[in-house]
Amino acid sequence: MIHENVEKIRKAKGVTKTHLAKKLNLSLQGYRHITSGEVKLDVERLNVIAKSLGVSPAIFFDNKLTESVIKDLNQANSKEVI
């Protein structure tokens, strides 16, 4: 669930995997291991991801991360770009 939510939010925010990998001091492959669930996310890395995406770490634990939440994130991101 957490890994999937990280990816949903990353995409909604328009952030690349490469950008997050760099923020985490990982290779792209290392980042993929995290988002695939092969490697567990620790609190420190989760906080770095949340900060990079401009969200609270708690959102990653929302097992009902709905399309409306993603839509809200997209709209907030669009306003930041304008």
Automatic annotation (TrEMBL):
Domain HTH cro/C1-type: from-to ranges: 6-60
Which GO molecular function annotations are given, in alphabetical order?
Answer: DNA binding
Q: Name one Pfam family in it.
A: HTH_3
Entries under InterPro entries matching the protein? Cro/C1-type_HTH, Lambda_DNA-bd_dom_sf
The name on file for this protein is: Helix-turn-helix domain-containing protein
